[in-house]
Request: fold
Amino acid sequence: MCREPGCSRWLLFAVCAHLLFLLPPLRTRAFAVNVVPGGAEDENELRVLQKSEKSRRISRISIELKEIVFIIQSQSNSFHSKRAEDLKRDVLKQAADLGKELPTVLLIHQMDGHEGAWTILPLMRDFSVTYGRNSSWIFFCEEDTRIQVVKLLETLGRFDGSKEWFLGKALYDEESTIIHHYAFAENPTVFKFPDFAAGWALSIPLVNKLAKKLKSEPLKSDFTIDLKHEIALYIWQKGEGPHLTPVPEFCTDDVSSYKVDHCATTFSNFLPLCGEPVKKEDVFVAVKTCQKFHGDRIPVVKQTWEREAALIEYYSDYADISIPTIDLGIPNTDRGHCGKTFAILERFLNNSSPRTPWLVIVDDDTLISIFRLRKLLSCYDPNEPVFLGERYGYGLGAGGYSYITGGGGMVFSRVAVQKLLASKCRCYNMDAPDDMVLGMCFSGLGIPITHSPLFHQARPMDYPKDYLSHQIPVSFHKHWNIDPVQVYFTWLASNTEESFNGKKVGYNREDL
Reply:
């Protein structure tokens, strides 16, 4: 028997070591995963453990993945449709990795129906008939929204799907604005509407209610200007549904941001870039003006963005050699400028720049970054008929057509101009609204309108700050009640903090 000092402690240590050695191999490997995560075998087991943990999280969620119908607000242009297909594949892969029944994922531009599918509300009856019995949620998102499926399930699982819910990341106007028809003028902050980039969701009971309402009272709105605001207004007012419920897990931070740990959705892009920006010489800029604005608007263009354009011409009702302007022989009109715009299109195709692949038509009070536009155009094929800008709609509840609103700038590929002018579609009056006539013509030709939220028909102050925070804008419009030079250098001028790949690093913007 051991009687020396400390002998009993050594004996206890030896027994413990022997017991540890006799532990079953599985326990030993589990211990090794926690202590030595470096080997290939350990990494595989770590992935197994992570998947197991994810499965346990799923098992605690009351909602099944198959109860969610994903709707990607996609477009038919090849660049946009590919991005939407990539997102669809990512959602389905996440579902497969969870071992769950695959959900329904739909792309809006592939849905049969009519031109107005992108306005969502005309689809409600189809959603109700097809998914009204076996689904709980319709989840909408943009092509650049990134979805963490497990977190989305956890988020939606907090809400009772048997009730009417309208969920999203809340935006609001700080002051009444023309793009929302000065709604809620006394206190515009009270009305919340969703940021589509973060994703938004409708419970099936609300979808069914809206479908029933739309069946008995078809949409009568003539214009679609800001869809996210108009949908929220219709749900609350005409559909007699709920206000938007803000959901903090619906985010627009970049996926690499430190803020996104709690997010079910993030936003992956601020300014698309697909290789080198198009060359300066590949973009022809046409500025519409008239004599009465030569003295105040044209100097702003020359102080700001004119230097970014290699090819630019000013078209007026008066030839002024000091600018210089070109008189196309089209009298100025107080309303639309259809005659002038079609004359510009003819000149672009036949005279000004017969081989330049891109044409941009802007107003003399448009503020635009040609540098950013050249980045954006790197993602589009000039051999396709492209008509690009901020999309509006007219009469889409009953046929109608989409169009690019002119103030934010209208971008045409040469192919699109060729197809347009080869058709017989022309202005019904010289003072007809040019942007709407173009939309009607392209719709008749089967050429889709391509929307980019980076073009803006109004001033920065007319949009929610949180909406602009995840953009690198290409254009704004109007000089009313602002210093346009200051707006340009604050929002649109090339910035050293703006990285080449289009990601936003940060701006020091004043309230304008």
Summary: The longest strand covers residues 283-288. The chain is about 35% helix and 15% strand.
